[in-house]
Amino acid sequence: MANEIRAVLIPIEANRKLLLPNAMVAEVMAMRSIDDIETDQKWLLGTVSWRGWDIPLIDFGLLTGYQHEEPTNLVSTDNIAVLKCINHPQDLPYFAVLSRGIPKLQLVSRGDIQLHEEQEVIHHAIASLVSIEDEMADIPNMNYLETQLISLTAEPA
């Protein structure tokens, strides 16, 4: 169908997912070692090596406040979704999101998505709250995420 797009649902917590166009997902890879990064932001887990890049890895659940405690232990079923930056690719071409399971590829049409305007968005990192086939999902605010990551990972002058 011409009005469908390929989307990816990335599990970020037991009952929460991120919804992104498939074109924004560069790769999904198995969990690997995470290098420390100097920051007091607990949601920025560190950096991971990917195709010669050291890219920041975030825990979206921790960032948005749904998950209040420290990052939970990473397990072998966790994955890393590498995302393409769309607003500031010259400053940060890619970053990664912790995936608590295997992301799911899905064809989505306009009628498949229900916007939840009655629910208050509780964090700037979330652009919209939606449901798709009875699953709740967050559409991330990519500009906010990229801007925050650039400011936290920029090399000091």
**Helix share, percent:** 10-25%
Radius of gyration: 15 Å
- Poorly predicted runs are none
The quaternary organization reads as: single chain
Largest sheet: 6 strands, mixed
Structural class: mainly beta
Topology as H/E string?
Answer: EEEEEHEEEEEEH
For the residues shown, what is the average pLDDT? 88
Secondary structure tally: strands: 11
Strand order of the largest sheet: 8-1-2-11-10-9
Total count of domains: 1
Counted by DSSP, the helix tally is 2
Query: How far apart lie the N and C ends?
Result: 50 Å
* Molecular shape: globular
- Give the DSSP E fraction (strand runs of 2 or more residues): 35-45%
InterPro entries: CheW-like_dom_sf, CheW-lke_dom
Pfam families: CheW (PF01584)
Domain CheW-like: 4-151
Protein name: Chemotaxis protein CheW
Write the layout of secondary structure elements.
Elements lengths: L4 E9 L2 E6 L3 E6 L13 E7 L2 E6 L1 H4 L15 E6 L9 E6 L4 E5 L4 E3 L10 E7 L2 E6 L1 H12 L4
Parallel strand pairs: 2-11, 5-7
Antiparallel strand pairs: 1-2, 1-8, 3-6, 4-5, 6-7, 9-10, 10-11
Pfam family, one: CheW
GO biological process, one term: signal transduction
Protein name: Chemotaxis protein CheW
